[in-house]
Specification:
With 66 residues, this protein is mainly α. It contains three helices and no strands. Helix 2 packs antiparallel against helix 3. It is elongated.
């Protein structure tokens, strides 16, 4: 059952945007852990790819706050 006022409640349908906004910190953490693991595997290009995704998400969040 959904909490009122939370994404997915009857008043506000759950969307990719609402879920990703709610869990953005967790998503950014997971992307960085993935990048660190790829660094350890000596795959810097792959690590950079995941860090780039994280950077884009963080920048988009910063623009949305203004």
């Amino acid at each position: 059952m959904s909490d009122p006022g939370q994404p997915g409640s009857a008043a506000e349908p759950e969307t990719v945007a609402s879920v990703s906004e709610l869990y953005l910190g967790n998503i950014l953490y997971a992307l960085e852990v993935t990048a660190l693991s790829l660094d350890e595997q000596q795959k810097p290009a792959d690590a950079g790819f995941y860090r780039g995704i994280g950077r884009k998400l963080a920048e988009a969040r910063g623009r949305a706050k203004h």
